[in-house]
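ok trying this again, last paste got cut off
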Amino acid sequence: MKFSEELVQQVWEKARGNFDVDSGLWREDECGAWISRNQYGHQNSDFGWKIENVSAGGPDILENLRAFHLGNSFDRTSGHPKCHVTADRTGLASSERTFQTRNKNV
């Protein structure tokens, strides 16, 4: 489905911001995967993302829409995200913050 640029931006703003990076450019989806604002709909991008309706049978309104990395999705039946990609924090101590955006398949 084609969404207006205004709605795409509103859904983007609902995704999880991170103090370590510019949230106008980078956010995390519900699975913790990095997504890049300018990569919306880019199928061959490591940081591409899509908009999913998380309401079973609900209309495509802002309240029902969420941003997901292209490798992740939402299971409307169970009401939970299906995570296949998440941020790669390998080698970082829990107290360290990451300034490099990396994803990995899980």
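PB: full thing came through this time. The chain has one domain: 5-105.
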